[in-house]
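Hey, I'm writing a tutorial for new members on how sequence and structure tokens pair up, and I'd like a real worked example in the thread rather than a made-up one. If someone can provide the structure for the chain below, I'll link this post from the tutorial.
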Amino acid sequence: MPDPDIFYIVSVHGWNQYGLAAWTGISGDRFYEFDKGGPDFTKMEHSWIKKHIQVGPLGAEYPDYLFIPEGDTPTLLYLIQNGLGDTEHPEWGSWGGRYAPSAEEGRHYGDTADRVTGVSGDPYLSAQATIWRWRDAYQNDFAARMQWTLTDEIAKANHAPRVSVNGHGFGPEAIRIEANVSTSVELDAGESYDPDVSDRLTYTWTQYKEPSATQWQVGFEVAPLLITDLDPQVPGRKISVALPSAGRCALDLGTKEPLAKGQELHLILEVKDDGVPALTTYKRIVIQCLNPELTSALAEGEEDPNAAVAQAIANLRG
């Protein structure tokens, strides 16, 4: 009998239809011709790989690719503990992509999609985008690791920043916060540092909406978190995050009934150094929206994005 605690991740598609699989997002956009204008292929070019990967005795063993480089690598990247992903939550997303259960209680996780702005400035919605959106960071990480093989002197190679938020330590675990709707929380990454003391850090906060959504179109279903910078000296080092109203994040989509526990909203902090190559460490903040008053109120002037959906469901029910 299958172990209920074990799940597995696999792309399911027609035989030999490799280009449909999420893992091709690692580098397959030219070969399989998906998401044209989305990913930046620069760090997958033969010339870049020759300069940054095929170096030293280990790099000399790295072959020139024929089809796509690093095809199976998302399997490994999923396990990298850099603060972005969580191995127990494939649906959260990581350098290895984002995967959703194929059934409500299923143990099989399959491809899902992210909406990502490409280098063209246009939005792209695909399973491959759940991986290529991180390409610059994971290729820089690969290049840095190859540099580590060339020297035993720590100061001669770059190392990723260490990130802490609100004093939670420097581990890769996500920080979980419970907060009432229509309130604000402060997030302070001031303890973060870079082991290469001369490197300067930049802080970028992004709401990762897709893990919160249950529908394909996340725009109407997941309300934005409003971020206010509180650190005039270093942008992003300390911020305030305003939570949505109950009417946006704590209602049943179909019945419009208020929920005591609303959506879990995901916020990603990227801390990047200015070393060579530039390296990135993440911290994921998961905010559980609480609605203790069981209100369905919207903020003043706020439109109800679910009204059309709820009306359509009500019409079907008669």
